[in-house]
Amino acid sequence: MDFNNLSREDLLKLTETTSEFIGALILYLWDENEKLKKYVKELEARLNLNSSNSSKPPSSDGYQKPNPKSLRGKSGKPSGGQLGHQAHVLPLNENPDKVVTYTASHCEKCDYDLKDELPLAEKIRQVMEFIAKLETTEYRVGTTLCPKCQHATQASFPKGVNYKTQYGDQTKALFSYLNVQQLMPLKRLTETFESLTGHTVSQGTILRANKELYTKLAYAEEQIKQQLMDSAVLHSDESSVKVNGKKQWIHVVCTPELTYYMIHPNRGKKAMDAAGILATYKGNSMHDGLKAYRKNTTCTHSLCNEHHHRELVGVIENDKQAWGQDMIDLLYAIKKWKAERITAGFGSMEPEQITKFEAQYRSILDIGFTENPPPEPPLEKKKGKKKQSKTKNLLDRLNKDQAAVLAFMYDFRVPFTNNEAERALRMIKVMQKVSGSFRSTQGPPIFSRLRGYFSTVRKHGLPVLQKIEEALSGTPFIPQPQPKN
User: Fold this and answer.
1) Quick one: pLDDT at residue 158?
2) Residue 443 sits in which domain range?
3) What percent of the chain is modeled with pLDDT above 70?
4) For residues 341-371, b (16+ Cβ closer than 10 Å) or e, as one string?
5) Which of 17, 27, 353, 359 registers the highest number of CB atoms within 10 A of its CB?
6) In the chain, how many domains are there?
């Protein structure tokens, strides 16, 4: 019987005529109450979501920050420099630009005149100042008359000196470094440059410097991509960006030594194929579980356990289920055991220890499934998958993807989290808050290539500004291939 279309008066009449109706009404009210309870639980869980128990960004937490704010446990160490830490001290410059000497004019005891006396010893203190100025080099080429044939021969200007006045590679490198690496917006960069040097530079000049560097880094980027494809483990992630007011996606593929960025209108497989790395990659691909990554079938997969940690915190806080804490403790116990094995010089975990950890993993999942049974089949058949709770979805994923969740245990080359890729995107989100969106379609590929090169240089511990200047002069840094171990 359909009670939804009956009025209150109709229901009162029916209750007077049949007892069967009362039984049906009780069942209906029971079902409605269960639906409302489930709906209230979903709303409460949604309200309790924050950056510590879900994938929501910290910026969405508002003023009510989660406690604790970080998933990292306390180290137990006091704040500040640790015992034995060597403090950083500015080294003395052996060739100071200026030397100012002070000598005593009179004896502090008897007031004797000391102006003509030489000092017995000297103490040195140095003060370092940043002096910013534009240095102009003028190139002159002469025309010489040949005494034999009377032909006038003019010398050539050095390579790269093409205009009557222009900026040199050092200055153009500084423009690109401040704009792309330090994420300084164009307007603020021009204001800063004028404040430091007293010289006005246009935004177009900075963009042209970026474009020139983009062209000269084409080969370096291809080498980075090739070395990424040859790596044993790759980290991948993606995040939204605005291009001309429309939502696009910045993708990153990286290792601890290499970084590649690409901005594309699509988030999934189409973009990954366009990048030309993951589509044919044969190593281990670490990611956050986005389905599009799984469509790359030539590689194995590992999942980020930082994401699992956050979701398990949600199980503890929202569902009050203890198995969530048990799973967190197990994952970190495996991580600790692995770290101890590596320190001891082992390249893999003992088979019997792996078996023990796997058994604990399965036991915790069994408890979780007991507390989260499958949903009751609906009275009316509907298309698509049955709607489940977030906790049940997490359990299904941990069950189905056990090999990917525990990949860091099976293969010591695989890390515990995908933080390498997440860190690579973190500053891009900061850039959007500071500078806003890309305002042209030419900007994203230039930014991506330059940012990937700068990141790769930094990961090798090299001076970024110097390597930008070398790239502008035609000799970009090309990383040496890393062994696969």
Assistant:
1) 92
2) 215-300+434-472
3) 82
4) beeeeeeebeeeeeeebeebbeebbeebeeb
5) 353
6) 2
